[in-house]
Amino acid sequence: MAPPLARTHEETYLYFELHPCPCGEVDFGSTSSLELVDDEWIVRYTGQCVACGRPRGFEFRQPDEPTAPDDGEWAPGREPSQLLDAGEWLWVADVYGSVPAELDGLSDAEREQARTDLLAARAAIDEVLKFLPARAAEVPQDAFWSYRGRVVRTAEPGRFGRVRLEAARAAYDRALAEFDR
Ligand SMILES: [Zn+2]
């Protein structure tokens, strides 16, 4: 089976974060190589865990024309991710979305970090929405293939309804608008 498509470097590194070494370390001092296999660009990341020395490696397909995502998105286009499932993207949104509600006490650097994190969280909601078929009321079951993703869905399946997802996105819009006041 062809390896999954990695749309952007940002998505690839997020995938590494979600798949640490069994010892818990994410960094494996990776080097990457690119190879054309059956008309597909295959990128291989190999290295050794910097904590325990275990050899580690990942293999992905790469778009013919790698593009950098715009500000405020993880990957361009409407196609859903093949690396992170819908539940993992919501998990990512929760991680980045837990910023201080009050901006007044923040330094400029903290403010900028909070804004960057909120943009990443909103973009993660957009990634969940890419799994939602045009007229569907909720994200379908086959959009959850990872253990973490299924745990998130089982904990609160209602969060994957269209209405709730759009409300979550709108809440991030409002939070981001605070920065322009
Ligand atoms: Zn390790």
Structure description:
This protein has helices at 9-18, 86-97, 108-129, 147-155, 162-177, and strands at 31-37, 40-48, 55-62. By secondary structure, it is α+β, with helices and mostly antiparallel strands. It has a three-stranded antiparallel beta sheet, with no helix packed on it. Helix 2 (86-97) runs antiparallel to helix 3 (108-129), helix 2 (86-97) packs across helix 4 (147-155) and helix 3 (108-129) runs antiparallel to helix 5 (162-177). The protein is globular. It starts with 8 loop residues before the first helix and ends with a helix. The mean pLDDT is 94. It binds zinc ion.
Brief account:
With 181 residues, the protein is an alpha+beta fold. It is built from 5 helices and 3 strands, in the order H-E-E-E-H-H-H-H. The chain is globular.
Largest sheet: 3 strands, antiparallel
Strand order of the largest sheet: 1-2-3
- List low-confidence stretches: none
Task: Please report the total strand number as a whole number.
Answer: 3
Cα end-to-end separation: 50 Å
Give average pLDDT, whole number.
94
Secondary structure: helix percent: 25-40%
> Any idea how many domains?
2
What would you call the shape? globular
How would you spell out the order of helices and strands?
A: HEEEHHHH
Q: Return the structural class.
A: alpha+beta
Gyration radius (Cα, Å) is 18 Å
**Distinct compounds present:** zinc ion
Count up the helices: 5
The fraction of residues in strands falls at 5-15%
